[in-house]
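W.,

You were right to be curious about this one. When I first looked at the sequence I had no strong expectations either way, so I just let the prediction run and decided to look at it fresh. Below is the sequence, 194 residues in total, followed by the output.
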Amino acid sequence: MRHEFTEVLNDLIDYFLLADIRALLDFSVQKGLPADLATEFTMTESADRAVEAGALLPIPGVENLPYTVAFVTAPDEPELLAPTSHLVHRGDAYALHVEHGSLELFTWHILGEFTESTVGALLERYRQSERPRIAIENGWYRVDVLAGWLARDDGPEPAFELVLTPAAAKPAPQNTDLGRRYALSATDLTRPSV
């Protein structure tokens, strides 16, 4: 299936974050982390531990553009792999664990006050509007992050596709590079797709 969201913004910080946001909250409570996860994640190795636990997938280097974001599961194929699209970045085989039946794409600002009440309020806003969130079975997922330009009638459109593949256990790292930057610019269109 394909769940697509348009006009998704990064709130002027060059990150998107992907997580079962309630599982990330559980992780932060279990580890005794402060409510200001933004500072915690930039000043300590807690973000690395969250990634290793499958509680968070950071997507850095995101330019300030309005994106189409799609969650893609079988049998659908990513549109960024089509010959008419222009794939710029491909990060393969990240691991995420879903514990509360959903995945959310959100921005760094959410981490500044990461508490039960702010997470609850955020999820309520997600339910009331078309924000990048999907219902999905609990368990481990391999996540491939694709970034590039989709072919549209009115011209190329910047996009992220999050390809989710269920896994029986935590996927082994393959081409995972947490330092990869997913920057897109119009000059990408003059270079070959990856």
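Here's what jumped out at me. Strands lie at 2-8, 15-19, 57-60, 67-72, 86-98, 102-106, 133-135, 139-150, 157-167. And, maybe more interesting for your project: The chain has four helices and nine strands.

Coffee later to discuss?

I.
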